[in-house]
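quick one before i forget lol
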Amino acid sequence: MNVAVRALGGAFATVAKAAVPPIDVLLGPIGAAVGGALKAAEGVRANKEACVSLSVASFTAARTLFESLAMITSDNLARGDFLGARLAPPLQRMQGTLASVESLIGSFAKKGFVKRMLTTDVDARGFARLDKELMAELAEIDAAFGRETLDLQRRTYEHVEQLARLIESQRAALETHDADAL
């Protein structure tokens, strides 16, 4: 697991270097929170299965986020026009959720974990809530990428249309020129 955490941390650092503010500053804490959650899950004394499951879910969410960001070229990441507007809010929420995941899992590794075992209903709701929040934030990020893809397709179509009109006007000018030459 440590190898995976280090690899993900390095990948986030690389993507963060190419991203514009506030995306660049959000990726570091997201990676750190995921690493903290995974590390805390290794030392839990109670609710071990739920803690490990939630830490793996946070790792999966971070990996999915990274894969989505990595699909964008560094040129597009540096462009930043849609990233700040569309991705910053869900990334900020994800950062907070992952910090809560790290905190919840860490609470099961601290002294007094026996007392925590007596609050299983509250803990179960907390685990379910955080898992649901992670999935909702990923869905929002995915939707932002979908909107950007549609915007890129629309802009590409407009450029192709402009080129087609330019080619048509050039062809018409050549035909007029050829007709005048005869």
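fyi The helical segments are 2-18, 23-42, 48-71, 74-79, 81-107, 113-117, 120-181.
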